[in-house]
Amino acid sequence: MLDQVLDRARQRRGDAEAALFELLAIPSVSALPEHAGDCRRAAGWLLSRLRSAGMDARLVEGADGGHPLVVAEWLGRPGAPTLTVYGHYDVQPPDPVDEWRTPPFEPTVRDGCVYARGADDNKGQHMASVLAAEHWLADGGPPVNLRFLIEGEEEVTGHVLPDFLHASADQLATDYVLIGDGGFLAPGQPTLLTALRGLLYTEIEVVGPAVDLHSGIFGGVAPNPFNSLAHVLAGLKDRDGVVRIPGFYDDVEPPNDEELRGWQALPVTDEQHREAMGVTELAGEPGYSPLERRWARPTLDVHGVIGGFTGAGSKTVIPARAKAKVSMRLVPRQDPARILAGLREAVDALVTPGTRGTVTDLGGVEAVLMETDHPGVEALGRAFAAAYGAAPLLVREGGSIPVTLEFQRALDTRLLVTGFGLPDDALHSPNERMNLEQYHRGVETMVRLMHELVAER
Ligand SMILES: [Zn+2]
User: Fold this and answer.
1) Cα(437) to centroid of ligand 1, in Å?
2) Is residue 245 within 8 Å of residue 236, measured between CB atoms?
3) Of 135, 226, 269, 346, whose CB count within 10 A is highest?
4) Which residues have CB under 8 Å from 28's CB, separation 6+?
5) pLDDT by residue (tens digit) across 335-383?
6) Distance from Cα 419 to the centre of ligand 1, integer Å
7) What is the separation, in whole angstroms, between the first and last Cα of the chain?
């Protein structure tokens, strides 16, 4: 059966491209109100496509507006695993439009790639799964149960999908959620994401005198909140990049041996890092490689300082208050609440006499750790190896993908965060593209994954 479905996919590559180009021609820019109708059009297009394939599909509307969520199911294999595929049909605004070689919503093929806004992020990615589902359904249905959740608010962090996940969790039981929002590290090298860093964002305020003071009159006895804040900021992280917050590293979950071996084997050098940032030396903790520092170690950064006199010329003021924006990137098992308590303790200890510090929590998100020791990862490995000649390398990401946390919180399930895009696909930039060979092999990978999830080993 698998061979028959793969043959069908290979014979219909032209149709697969035509389908993707139709969806790419719809300017479903979620951030711009004038494109709300286009977002709805893209949702409707996917709805009818999934219905024609034989899936039970509907649109879910938000309680207070927003762009509709496309939900489609085919649950024809009682007892078999269920695979849920996540995607988003909304795209970033195409600006600056005059930097596009061809119009962003007129899909154009050059050098084996289709150029259009959304080609990689995310229409090409989820269409590969839609096509795979169609090919299986044309031949009696896949060996697994299938569900699609394709939202229209990823680029604007909307509420329709998270609300639906939490309200309908009991109807969304699934063994795996495939999040096709990752990509290849290089041609021929697919990846599987194993963790994402979290974030704790704070504002630190230090107060001293009741009013701004004259430094000629009171300088020498006046506590200075800015000097005090400087002590605090310098004391939170030392010259080697080690964060000096009590308990900061206590719960850090180190990467496993397989992850570390994979990263060591990557052809990524210090020199490349220096060049990418335009610096002469890398910062950070000694004893950890740059990739470990970016992906698996927590860190702390100051983003801005506010207060005092910042105009032209000089003014000899001792300010009454000073503020700084400080964030911490957190790694799996670190609890933002515990880190916040430690930060408050550190600030209290570091302020100079006569000044007082307060820390305001401006929001945070936990790190995400994805299990890798389960049959879904093995099945994905075999599917990628057959379609592209290489199994996915386990990588982490320094930033966060909010939807992963929503899926983990709402559904007790395993996440597979991967994808078919290449590093130079220009996501969010002019001339975004998707390599068509990658796309077709993506369809093949998804056809194979649906088979491998139930294959006897
Ligand atoms: Zn995006």
Assistant:
1) 21
2) yes
3) 135
4) 35, 38, 39, 41, 42, 67, 89, 90, 91, 118, 152
5) 999 999 999 999 999 999 999 999 999 988 889 999 999 999 999 999 9
6) 13
7) 17
Distance between CA 116 and CA 27 in Å, rounded? Answer: 10
- pLDDT tens column, 290-308: 999 999 999 999 999 999 9
Residues of the chain with confidence (pLDDT) below 70: 456-457
Ligand 1 center from residue 144 Cα (angstroms): 29
Ligand 1 centroid–CA 92 distance in Å is 6
Residue type for position 252: V
Q: Nearest 5 degrees, angle CA 39-CA 40-CA 44?
A: 120
Extract the tokens encoding 300.
């702390």
How far away, in angstroms, is 426 Cα from ligand 1 center?
Answer: 10
- What residue type is assigned to position 260 of the chain? L
- For residues 431 and 99, the answer to whether their CB atoms sit within 8 Å is yes
